[in-house]
Amino acid sequence: MGRTVEVKLGARSYPVHIACGLLDRVGELLVEIAPCRRAVIITDDNVRALYAARLASSLAQAQIDSLVISVPPGESSKSLETLAHLYDEFARLHVRRDELVLALGGGVIGDLAGFAAATWLRGVRFVQVPTTVLSQVDSSVGGKVGINHPSGKNLIGSFYQPLLVVIDPDTLRTLPSAEVWSGLAEVIKYGFIADRSLYERVATDIRALAAEPGSSLWEEILARCCEIKATIVQSDERDLGLRHILNFGHTLGHALEAATGYNRLRHGEAVARGMVAALWLSHWLRAFPEEELEASLQVLEQFPRPELDDLVAREIVPHVAHDKKGTSAGQKWVLLDRIGSATVIQDPPAELVVQAAEKMLR
Predict the structure, then answer these.
(1) Are both 126 and 8 inside the same structural domain?
(2) pLDDT, tens digit, 9 for 90 and up, residues 324-334
(3) Cα 141 to Cα 269: distance, rounded to the nearest angstrom
(4) Average per-residue pLDDT in the chain?
(5) Which of 11, 167, 204, 335 is buried most, with the most CB atoms less than 10 Å from its CB?
(6) Interatomic CA distance for residues 128 and 145, integer angstroms
(7) Do 252 and 148 lie in a common domain?
(8) Of the residues 111, 145, 174, which one is the last residue of a structural domain?
(9) Tens-place pLDDT, residues 35-44
(10) Residues 34, 40, 44, 49: is their CA dihedral positive or negative?
């Protein structure tokens, strides 16, 4: 059956196609909007073994030759070193501007491949083929691409929209359970900031969603998340206002990732803990209702808990200063007035931030 969400950005508009089995139709979809002779598939070693051959076969059926560049899996590949490796491979393969870069994998691959495409020859067309929950509901849509710096997450990057996003929920079936839960953190985030009914549905079905990735429950939820993301991006493509609300749970979540060297926690695990902190700050500073606080915390407590006993709140909080949402006027924080209604404030009291970080670590 399938769903299509349009990201309407004028000349940079593109469709997000969502349906089981779409991985085998990528070539067919490309012929319709971006005919070319050759494409470079960028993926990681794990996803390559699972899906690269299928994607290459789909391209071959559309008379598109393909080459595969694979990098190690994990957040550590969002680095200057890995980016330089991609540039070296592009040079060796003589990648031209009229060819395509396809990002096959999770958020790390989408961000890394997208930034490489944006900066090679001042811009090569690229397509997102996300294979994780997190990338399917969030990072593949909206055009944010980039890599990490030791000082903070995603500090080096650009806005560079894809030509097309192809989401095949079947690829979720091969995900480890921890990766599914990590993506569900971003799913519930959309409910918190913009859609109470989505929050309630996910809260009710969260264990079934985690246990059966790619099941019939997923297609509608993926589409709804993409619809919310598209609406926000259309209003604020370059992240100057409304788009900040997508950062709910990310300010301290990113600080937690930075404090642990980007190699201990999955992104969604850090965001889930960051949302705990943001909910407490919402209660203290925005009169977020106590009954909604308690219900929300109970939902988040169902997520697997990373081992954080060795961390100290006051040592994590300084990493917030490097968050990319910061401005010369101060740091922006996303809080809730109610479930489904987010707001952005600036520089909450420092001691409350520490207290919220302590709640996050418990």
Answers:
(1) yes
(2) 665 545 789 99
(3) 20
(4) 95
(5) 167
(6) 11
(7) no
(8) 174
(9) 899 999 999 9
(10) positive
Looking at the fold, whether 168 and 253 belong to one and the same domain comes out as no
pLDDT in tens, 124-168: 999 999 999 999 999 999 999 999 988 878 899 999 999 999 999
| Total residue length of the chain | 362
Measured CA to CA, the distance from residue 276 to residue 281 in angstroms comes to 9
Same-domain pairing of 126 and 274: no
Residues 163 and 50 in one domain: yes
> pLDDT digits over 298-330, tens only?
999 999 999 999 999 999 999 998 776 655 457
Q: Give the global pTM.
A: 0.94
The DSSP annotation for 131-171 comes to -SHHIIIIITSS-EEEEEETTEEEEEEEE---SEEEE-GGG
Which whole number is the average pLDDT over 245-261?
Answer: 94
CA dist 120 and 172 (Å) reads 30
Residues 147 and 18 both lie in one domain = yes
In a domain, 210, yes or no: no
Q: What is the domain range of residue 317?
A: 248-361
Q: Which residue has the tokens 């990590």?
A: 182
Q: In what order do the strands lie in the sheet with 65-71?
A: 3-7, 14-18, 164-167, 125-130, 100-105, 38-44, 65-71
CATH number of the domain encompassing residue 254: 1.20.1090.10
